[in-house]
Amino acid sequence: WKWGTSQPTGKVAEIVEEGKAQVTSNKGNTVTRNAREGDPAVKIARDGNDVVKLAHELSEVKET
Q1: Which domain covers residue 48, as residue numbers?
Q2: What is the total count of domains within the chain?
Q3: From CA 47, how far away is CA 55, in angstroms rounded?
Q4: Above pLDDT 70, what percent of the chain?
């Protein structure tokens, strides 16, 4: 996904097809994305804060 001028990375931890996906930030805030038909919510595990995004916000990166 894009964040300013950078593209952070992580690994898909869960795909939520219906309902909502949530993660809690290191500061204790709850971040939520509501899955939509054809655009699931995706939990991404990464160093620091885990994140949750909609599928259309993501681009695949091949591991080298």
Answers
A1: 11-57
A2: 1
A3: 20
A4: 98
